[in-house]
Amino acid sequence: KYFDIIDIPSIASTEKVLPKLYEEIDALFRQIDQNNDGYIVKAELTKCIKALGLQVTLEEVDDLLREIDLNKDSRISLLEFRQVMEKELKRDMMQMDDVIWSLREAFRRADVKHLGRLTYRQFEVAMKEIGIQLTPIQLKTLTAGVDRDQNGLIDIDEFVEYLSQNINSQSGFVDSAFTSIKRPQSLSLADLFNIFSQMPPSYTQSLIREVHLRRENLPSLSIQPQRDSKGLFFVDLRKNFDRGTFNLERIPANITLEITLEQAHGVPSPEMKNNMKNIRFIEREVKICLYDSINGKFIGNSVSVKAASQLDNQDKWAFRPNGNAIENQIILKLANFNPTKETGLSLYMELAATVQTSSQTIEISCAWTSLLITELTRSRRQSLKLQGGGPTKIRIIEYGQSNSKVSGWHFLTKPFKNSQVAPELKIDIADLRATSGEMRNDLERLPSRVLLNKSALGLLATFREYLGSKLSNEEQSLTEIENDFIAHTMQNCLDCPDLTTRLSDFWNLIQSSYLKGRPVRFHVNCLIDILQELSILLNSADFEFSKQDPTKKAFGSELPIKRQRLINWIFEEILNRHGIVVDKLPKEFKLGKEELANFK
To answer: Which residues contact 339 (CB under 8 A, 6 or more apart)?
Structure first.
């Protein structure tokens, strides 16, 4: 009876086209089918949905079961599961919004003559740049379908239209090409199930990491000039001339705040037992971005603050792991903030952990909180309630979810501590509008709306002076500024999590010594010199920086140390060239002779 219902030929043909997808579906089915009887029942399906981080009611589970259970026997077979999951996953894979953004950006960079069209060779290069490797047959099939007039050129709008119209194409080549475009770096369904089934129910995938994967709300947006409504001028990089030199116009703000992350407690943590299969927490941080609750989207750039927790008290996060006095401080600048029109604008803070599996890493949101900008305007301390899920699907964190491991003598004291600790993030807010001197000068050189780590203030202010100097050149076009080599290097430095903090600290070091008392133009030239050196680093194979995923962290046994060594070598070269004397860098980050020779 079942085989009379299912279209076996269509399943078989699709399986030939998407073998990896079916491997993932089969692996997920085996994980959900806990008693290994070849069927999924309601209880198993409910557990699966919750493990994947979805919130549904029992009625919705019943509806889903009826939809998947094609032969109505109150259970789901592998073939039924395959058919529905293939349909849903393919639809998800073909969601075009994030793909289109990446494609348009790749097209724009490949279109060096600004013709709005690409040759087949340029198109292939553009695809490789965003991590898409198409076979010669896939490339030929796609270009033949898009280039209808056969003039050898591909228009981006025609290509996007072609993709949209052919999502459900029956062509095996087109189907597999689409899959390659959408899934260059995805985590398998089985991996997701394995991870989240061992986590507290409030955990979900990091929302800010997801927007970063779409190349939205990147940290580097903190330096991106703003165009006017017609796209003709940069409204926040106005120029004034004074005796032949440039002066970047200062931009005051009606909100300029210093926000210090003090402590988080009651953060849900998984029970660290031996049954956690191939899962390890390797980093904690708070990701911060403005959020518009009215429109349900993140606004502007994001920043992050490193965190640490103790092995015997993992529900408590501290925010100065390196002992730096300002590493737990961020600055928020908002010019022309209108509390009447921007009632839904808030500061979103996501407590995120990077989890490593046997093969990949994933960034998980352990908890989050937010505070309306209208409530941020007074200097005061705040205790913000932590929640699970996200702003559109909130999950309540229950007391006692923090199952942190207890060892040693702490085991004796733990029962006497208050186990009902409220999940909270404590912050301190200071108004900077009354500040003066160099700090006020740096703040006014920043864009009209920006979030930044306090340690990066001097670096970003100097870079803004660099952009101002480019704009002071009457012959410099807007396109040339946007494609500026130094500007792109700076963007990559800010987005690379293993480089941005190191660069800020290094700049503060030389600014407080070598550059102290020197004119602004000298500061700008020194920054240009540093960025020219770092561009070599970012493009080296050893550093493994990903332009299609610039916020990707370096993890593993060797890459993090290798990156630190290469960064230190670049900084030492710069110090030696300028004759700047500082304390020795850590020996463990020195390059060996062979390693240095290979890199040079």
So the answer is: 373, 374
